[in-house]
Amino acid sequence: MIYLDASYIVKCYLRETGTAEVLALVHSNLGCSSAAHARTEVWSGIHRRICDKTVSLADARNVWRQFEHDDALGVWHWLSLTENVIKRACSVLETLPADVYLRSSDALHLPVRRKIGSAKFTAGIESYSPLQRTSDSTGLMSIEFS
Fold this sequence. Notes:
Layout: E1 2-4, H1 6-11, H2 19-27, E2 32-35, H3 38-51, H4 57-72, E3 76-79, H5 83-95, H6 104-115, E4 120-122, H7 129-138
Parallel strand pairs: 1-2, 1-4, 2-3
Helix pairs in contact: 3-4, 5-6
């Protein structure tokens, strides 16, 4: 089982930098998981493409329906956000270096991933170097895109 954050899930549905690498990674693993809140992040990420005018509303709706179809088929396995997960995310934020910024929704992915233990954890941090430092200290694995 592989764990993806929302930015990598979006790459499974929209052609953009890194899509080929993420799809290869997904196809080489048995199952995909993410924190439950990633679903809203996926919707938001696709909506941002509408705002950027890189995706039409009709195309976005098609992507959302494909995602729902895949979810119904069991492609995505959603991990719940418990009170303990939220507290652990707060602890992660509290211990970060002062020059590292981590969004709250990204911080939630770290303890959720730890709930599933041995799964590979891949997150979309490739374009933000302070987060690369965070990944080094939290066990996150990322793919570098050219």
